Amino acid sequence: MSEFQGGPAAKVPAWRRPTPGESRWPVQVTVAGLIGLQLWLPAHLALGNRWALPAVEAVLLVVLTVANPLRLERGSAWFRRASLLLVAVASLANGASAVLLVAHLVDGDATHSPRGLLSEGGAVYLTNVVTFALWYWELDRGGPLSRKEGQDTEVDFLFPQMATPDVAPPDWEPTFPDYLYLSFTNSTAFSPTDTMPWTRWAKMLMLVQSATALCIAALVIARAVNVLP
Fold it and tell me: Which domain holds residue 104?
C-alpha cells in the first residue's frame, strides 16, 4: 500500500520524484527588478559606489542565464557558488541600505518629505522581500537543481501541498513564485502563514527577515506620520 492515499496506483507527487528543471524567467525578471530598485535608491542609502554592487549582480545574472537560459537543467559546483554569490551580494547591498535608512531615521537626517520617506522605505522593504525569497529558493532542500532530482525529501519548508498530497495536483512542486509568496507574507505578517519553516536554519532566517521588515516598516511609517503637514 502506498504511503499516499489512493493505493499503489496513486501518483508520487512531483516534489518527491525527478522532474524537468524549473523555468528560469521568474527569477530573471525578479532579480532584474531587484537591481533596478537598488539603483533607484538615493546615493546616501548605498554602500560605497551606488553602481558597484548592482553591477556585480548584473554580471552574475548574465553568467547564470547563459549557463541555463530557459530552464535550470545543468548544474555544477561553480554554478552553485555563482548563484549563492549573487544572493549574498544582493543581501549585502540591501542590508547596508536598511542599516543606513534606520540610521538616518534615528538621527533625524532622513528626508522630511513623507512621499520620499515612504518611497525609500518601500524600496528597501521590497528588496528585503526579494533577497530573502532568493535565499529560501536557493537553500530549501539544496536548491532548485537538487530539488529537481527529487531525492532529498527532508523538507526545510513545509508547503500546504506537501502536508495534504491527496488534494494537491500530482505535478505540483515548489518553484520560485512560491518562495516569493512565502517571503512576502513573512514580511507583512511577521510570522509564518500557510508555509511552515521545518528546520532550524529556516526558522532563524525567517526570524531575521521578520525583524528587519518590522524595524523598517515601524520607523518609516512613524517618521512619515510625524512629518505630515
Answer: 14-226
